[in-house]
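Technical annex, item 7. During the second reporting period the consortium partners agreed on a shared format for inverse folding records so that results from different sites could be compared directly. Each record opens with the tokenized structure and is followed by the designed sequence. A conforming record, contributed by the partner at site C, is shown below for reference.
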């Protein structure tokens, strides 16, 4: 079950990053790279929080 939660969190994070990058339009490559780096940091933090919550749920059972 934990593996399924992790896979789902990573998939959602990847889709969010792709949508954000595609939505940027014609921004310069440097600006896009900087923005992507910041967004990946946010996605990583969200994924870590999701995984920590899933571990707590599994440990509670």
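Designed sequence (site C submission):
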């Amino acid at each position: 079950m934990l593996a399924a939660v992790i896979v789902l969190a990573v998939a959602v994070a990847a889709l969010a990053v792709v949508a954000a990058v595609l939505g940027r339009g014609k921004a310069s490559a440097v600006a896009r790279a900087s923005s992507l780096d910041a967004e990946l940091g946010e996605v990583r933090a969200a994924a870590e929080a999701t995984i920590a919550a899933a571990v707590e749920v599994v440990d509670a059972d």
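The chain has one domain: 2-60. The radius of gyration is 14 Å. All partners now use this format for quarterly exchanges.
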